[in-house]
Design a protein that fits this description.
With 274 residues, this protein is of the alpha/beta class. It contains nine helices and ten strands. It has a single domain, classed as Alpha-Beta Complex (2-enoyl-CoA Hydratase, Chain A, domain 1). Strand 4, helix 3 and strand 5 form a beta-alpha-beta unit. Helix 2 packs parallel to helix 3 and helix 3 runs parallel beside helix 4.
Length: 274
């Protein structure tokens, strides 16, 4: 085959492969130009650090029509940003800026999994006001965790709440009727009291989730399950105590993070945020 033609065909194959990979990534994350997922927020070649804000409640996804997106971050979007950062050649580290009181366990688990399985560059977490519950779970997956002396850290535990309106209904003369095909189908319906069996089911699931949370943090932080279990009463602690207990690595702010990156990874950090 003619050398020029062969080179041309190889170029076509490479381009086609690139388009296929791009389309697969876009499909996986539900990306589109309209949703904003099609852009690369770290495209500026001067950027060396991909800054990802994890602010507000952490969900698996959010509906822009029903939620204030300023107070919500979704795991699917964070996964997307981690993928983009990983495959952007000039990005040498990822900075997770965390200010969140928590969210869905599944969402935190998805972000942690993405960090552990997708990212090869160093990941630094900076906890600002709060890195609690699911947000701390995410932070624990970073290679290095920073927090202020006054940051709220930890709150390792799981909670679920429900409302029981049955007494108010009875006092108001309202009779509640439920038709279900399963004994536990209407569990957590606020119009009826929670039965003993229903409570046991919910407590079972809370215990399982708690165990996954504790074991994941232990693995991420290089601690024993027993050490993390001893800290998993649901309470938070300030950054200074969190460092003493092994939940974070460094006390410092944004500028301390930049200095750490330069000193430990050997490049000038220029952060581009999304």
């Amino acid at each position: 085959m003619h050398t020029g033609l062969k080179a041309f065909l190889i170029a076509l194959v490479v381009i086609a492969a690139g388009i296929t990979i791009y389309n697969e990534v876009q499909y996986y994350f539900g990306g589109s130009a309209e949703s904003g997922y099609a852009e690369n927020p770290f495209a500026d070649s001067e950027c060396t650090v991909a800054g990802i804000n994890i602010h507000g409640d952490i969900y698996t996804y959010y509906d822009v029509e029903s939620m204030s997106v300023d107070d919500v971050i979704s795991s699917e979007y964070v996964q997307y940003l981690l993928e983009v950062a990983e495959y952007t050649p000039h990005i040498e580290a990822i900075l997770l800026e965390i200010d969140s009181y928590g969210g869905m366990p599944v969402a935190a688990h998805e972000i942690v999994s993405a960090i552990n399985h997708t990212v090869s560059v160093p990941v630094i977490a900076q906890i600002r006001g709060a890195g609690l519950s699911a947000a701390y779970w995410v932070a624990s997956a970073a290679d290095v965790v920073f927090a202020s002396e006054l940051s709220d850290v930890g709150a390792i535990g799981v909670t679920q709440s429900y409302t029981d309106q049955s007494t108010a209904n009875r006092q108001s003369g309202i009779t509640f009727n439920s038709l279900s095909t399963g004994k536990f189908k209407d569990i957590l319906n606020p119009e009826k009291p929670l039965t003993y069996e229903e409570r046991r089911i919910l407590e079972r699931d809370l215990a399982i989730t708690h165990d996954v949370f504790v074991r994941s943090v232990a693995e991420n932080r290089g601690m024993s399950v027993g050490e993390v279990q001893a800290l998993s009463d649901g309470s938070s602690m300030l950054g200074s105590l969190a460092k003493e207990k092994g939940l974070i690595d460094e006390i410092g702010d944004y500028y301390d993070v930049l200095s750490y990156i330069k000193e430990n990874y050997g490049f000038d950090p220029i952060v581009c945020y999304r």
